[in-house]
């Protein structure tokens, strides 16, 4: 205890604080200057993105299972703590041995620069904000650490500093705290200013707002009136854009000017094709309802959404490019370097895989891929649903591996048949009597023909299926249950259009999607 108070009164905490203030300066200066550069090149974003790229599948799976769609917030908190601790250490090291501390800061700067310039579609000049931030941080660290050195109360002033002799003003703790506080305040203002500045400079959101979508040449099939489950509380059949799950590796949403957007179709093709956004607006577009599903969705999870998409069938683009014999895959790449491997024939058949520009009657929201993304019925998003897509390479599975395939996930990802219980919720307490059980099931491109419910291991009983809109959308169901007091287990399973019953076999999301029957425990009073 005594030791601790002594340590606290000594120079180490002050030096650590100096380190933290210097780190804040590095990041905030980079943030402010970064307003004039590519947003994804900001140090924290670039570092986080690099970290994500090195994330092994089990960790991605763990992050999504634990934090769901808050996985990015969790990453930022983790990074913040790491940076804080490293900054403390660097501050203390710089106090003890300036050259070593300075080298440490430069090393960190170099690491950040390396992670900035290796991002996809980032130019070398995008390293400028980080470089300037690092220099500013180094200067601030020197000034603050010097104040700690000059505190009269410390006997252990390094000899080289003491040797500089008299004439240097002697500092006080109060002066040190004032300087550090001012630095922190300046860093805060710079960071907020940088944010505001980049928001003001970005006109992509405004351009999206004022974009008028063309009407489709082929309208979406009419949705039957009875698609919604009879059980109250089941997810809306059509997912509003604001509620649509979001999964991607992008820490800062790419901002692409639609007028500058271009899609390059190349590789094993007779004719390389380039497509502009205007080409898409002028083309014969189609509209259709498609349910997207994430491979990371656990049994009973909610990483799925159903929307009305407006776009150009990819088939039409491929017709112009004319794939060569031997090609069996299209590698689609986004502006930020994510890629997906989609079987060529899936993009050519009549399931209407599309380059989508509209979602539920609006231009794609920025986070869902503005201005253009892929939507491919029947495949998990990681092998098909490339957002901010800018490149289609016709190639072969044998020759190229997509982003998640390089990280241990499978190279193909047909969606597995899945049924989930949404009401009552797991561990709900419900009154005895008639209880409406309900939920959603999906088996995109095969369709759902049956959903069955099993209570406490009794015989499977058929649920009431709501109307089917199409085989590429999810389908809801309900089940009237005469609930008796006690604890009960509700299980559900679906049968797809080929007659195959959803497998009971439990599988983790890695490598090609979770399987198994969901079981929900409820208490009846
Ligand atoms: N550019 C890009 N596109 C991407 C991803 C990504 O990380 N980056 N993730 C894919 C995955 S894993 C899924 S499940 C879907 C999710 O689309 P959504 O966020 O619009 O729901 O996008 C796909 N497209
Ligand atoms: Mo996904």
Outline the secondary-structure elements.
Layout (H helix, E strand, L loop, with lengths): L1 H8 L1 H24 L8 H11 L3 H11 L3 H26 L1 H20 L10 H22 L9 H5 L9 H29 L2 H7 L51 E6 L5 E4 H6 L3 E8 L10 E10 H8 L7 E6 L4 E5 H5 L5 E6 L2 E2 L9 E3 L13 E7 L22 E6 L5 E2 L2 E10 L5 E8 L5 E2 L1 E2 L9 E9 L2 E11 L21 E7 L1
Parallel strand pairs: 1-10, 12-19
Antiparallel strand pairs: 1-2, 3-4, 4-7, 5-6, 5-10, 7-8, 7-9, 11-13, 13-17, 14-15, 14-18, 16-17, 18-19
Helix pairs in contact: 2-5, 2-7, 2-9, 3-6, 5-6, 6-7, 7-9
Bound molecules: ligand MTE and molybdenum atom (MO).
Task: Round the Cα radius of gyration to an integer and report it.
Answer: 28 Å
* Sheet having the most strands: 5 strands, mixed
Strand arrangement, major sheet:
2-1-10-5-6
Q: How much is the average pLDDT?
A: 94
Number of strands: 19
- How many discrete structural domains? 3
Bound molecules: the ligand Nc1nc2c(c(=O)[nH]1)N[C@H]1C(S)=C(S)[C@@H](COP(=O)(O)O)O[C@H]1N2, molybdenum atom
Strand content: 15-25%
Instruction: Describe the global form.
Output: globular
Structural class: alpha+beta
> What's the assembly state of these chains?
single chain
- What is the helix fraction of residues, given as a range? 25-40%
Give the number of helices: 13
Report the end-to-end length measured between terminal Cα atoms.
Answer: 54 Å
Low-confidence stretches: none
